[in-house]
Amino acid sequence: MNSDRNLFTLSKLLSTMAMATCLFSSAAFADEVRKPVSVDATKNVPLRILTRPGAVLYADDAGSKILKDNLPVFSSYFVYTRPKGEILAAGTGWYEVGSDDKGSVKGWIKGDDLFEWKQTMCLTFSHPDGRSPVLMFDDQDYLETLVNMPAEKRDPAVNSFYSSIDEAAKSKKLLPQTFPVLSMEPKLAVDNVSNFTLMPILDYKVIDFEGREARLLDIVAVSSASKDRVSSDLRTNKTYVSSAAESTAKHAVKLENMKFDVVWLIDTTRSMGPYIEKVRESMINVSKNIAEHKDLKERIAFGVWGYRDSATIEGLEYVTRNFTPKLQNIDEFVKTMETVKETKVDSVTFDEDVFSGVKDAIQNTAWREDAARIIIMVGDAPAHQAGHEWNVTGQTEETLRALADEAKITIFSLHLNPAKTKKFNKIAAKQFKELSTNPGVDTTAYWSISSNDLTAFANTSDQISKAIVTFLSDVVKTFKTEGGEVAAVAETPAAEENNAPANGPSADVISKSLHAAAVTWLGNEVSVEPPRDIEAWVIDKDLTESTRQSLEVRLLLTKAQLDSISSVLKSVIEAGETSVVSGEDFFTSLQAATALVARDPDKVNDAKDVAQLGLVPDFLSNLPYKSRLMEMNTEIWESWGPDEQNDFLNNLEAKLKAYAAIHDDTSMWIPLNPGDDANDYVAPILLDLMP
């Protein structure tokens, strides 16, 4: 009897397990069916949407029940049902949305409460100095026709648009409904951190613009500064017409409070003694100059970093040293400079760890929050290049320049050239020039000075220092006389009195660099309202000058996404290093370096390049911009010599280090919605930093 009962119990248990298995299989099958809509038929990338201000989540596509109203701006959802045909084109349909790509459907949102976001790409305005404000057009065909016009016809047409906007602002009138320009970038600089505006790219078209590749971009602008849906349409919003046309001259009085932080970054190896002494003398001269402008004493603060080389070299004492943990006024700084000395120990190699000095000066200086930031580099040797064991940062001049841009730092570089080190001088020149390529200025702020010419060095360091003092003392007057043109640069007395040495840029470049820094500072101070709640077509070049970039493409990434890119790069670097050492096939090495084979072993055999491996995150594989990593295949890898392979891997390593720096820089991470968890913050990362 017990055996019968046991048999019955076992039978019941098996039946229950079978039913549970069936239910589980059905649920799993249901989850498989409920996959989000893809961006298009050719890409297995889920389509996402972002909400506009005031969006509402409903229980069904009839709007019979509100589940949640006034959704936070930028709320991101995956799409499970998308309108089709004319309804999709009209933007009046309904979207069924979910919180993830695993079937977690949450409800329905009206088409006019959202916009589709096919890529994680977005745009930010490049520095406004030296170019015209971006015009945002209602119609793609109109903009494309304008771009294709010869310059003698296009320029008058474009200038007439700016004139019409200025006239409308002065008369406090709207532009007519027939005006082809929907909106315009403000003339003042937009601070995309304090006044974050998301400009996702919805669509794009690559075109030729005067022999250069350019892109027409369909964008949407949505600002996190307001929860109300108020369009920046120049034909309906008088307030925005006025604010967009406001020039720096109107707000010049605010520059009375402008401050400069000036940090010297000095090579303190054995050969640098005479130049350190000249910097010290220059600071004494600056002290006298500031004494004549007593109101500037607290507005200019100074700092100094020294750098040498690897800490493994006995007697060098340090790789970098911060002599000013807190920035100082000029009187204190002159005393501090007395303590900056060159080492008496020779380095092992001529190149040094310049990049550690640059990185520390950018990231570890005690910058004041309300000051414009300047670094003046002085050195006679190149940095150890990426991949060298004594390049502690692992970074390149390009990645460090990108970090300087994010930190809004202007760099001047004074490169001393020893006569017998021409090979190294060439390497150093490339590095120093890249580091001193500042936003808003066409010419790099780089001076090449013979190491035998102490007078030229003293004159140049004096010129830069005095120009900063003079510029700040006259900054209000400079901006008031500009007549509304942000790009115009008034000459300072320093620029008139002295000409830079023939081996460096003119004094005007110093003035323009300082002016660009002031424009950035003023835009932050005024808190300029960017365009919002519009969809428009733009071109990523200045319509009046095709050589100027007007928009920068960025990826809006969470820390988790940044970490996933880092994981990819680590795998690729490991595979590449294995291939270099062992001679194995690159893809075979990549297979061994990842868990890819456990997921889909056939992918390695079938893949023609890295993009097809399935290793790269979807948000990278869907970008309409070229990627050196994505195009990498065994044939390309094997066609390179060892130096090219190492350069490729070192470049990836440098970007990996840059990601780590961005990850740890709290100032770069922005909450899309109030109350967001820190893990959901995003950072708009330059496309140039992508692999």
Characteristic key phrases:
alpha+beta; Rossmann fold; SH3 type barrels; 26 strands; 691 residues; 4 domains
Descriptive account of the structure:
The protein is α+β, with helices and mostly antiparallel strands and 691 residues long. The chain has four domains: 38-117, SH3 type barrels, CATH 2.30.30; 121-232 and 530-549, no CATH class; 253-526, Rossmann fold (3-Layer(aba) Sandwich), CATH 3.40.50; 557-689, no CATH class. The strands form eight sheets. Strands 18-17-16-19-20-21 form a six-stranded mixed beta sheet, sandwiched between helices. The chain has a five-stranded antiparallel beta sheet with strand order 8-7-6-3-9, with no helix packed on it. Strands 13, 14, 15 and 22 form a four-stranded antiparallel beta sheet that branches. β19 (371-379), α9 (397-406) and β20 (409-417) form a beta-alpha-beta unit. α4 (151-171) packs across α5 (238-245), α11 (454-480) crosses α13 and α14 packs across α15 (586-593). The radius of gyration is 29 Å and the shape is globular. It starts with a helix and ends in a 5-residue tail after the last strand.
Content-based structural category: alpha+beta
User: How much helical structure, as a percent, in the residues?
Assistant: 25-40%
Average pLDDT confidence is: 81
Instruction: Using the CA coordinates, give the radius of gyration.
Output: 29 Å
Order of neighbouring strands in the sheet with most strands: 18-17-16-19-20-21
- Strand share of the residues? 15-25%
Q: Can you tell me the CATH topology of the largest domain?
A: Rossmann fold
Q: Please tell me the total number of domains.
A: 4
- Specify the CATH homologous superfamily of the largest domain: von Willebrand factor, type A domain
Large-scale geometry: globular
User: Under the CATH scheme, which class of the largest domain?
Assistant: Alpha Beta
For the termini, the CA-CA separation is 72 Å
Tell me about the biggest sheet? 6 strands, mixed
Number of helices: 20
Given as residue ranges, the uncertain stretches (5+ residues, pLDDT < 50) are 1-31, 484-502
Looking at the overall shape, the CATH architecture of the largest domain is: 3-Layer(aba) Sandwich
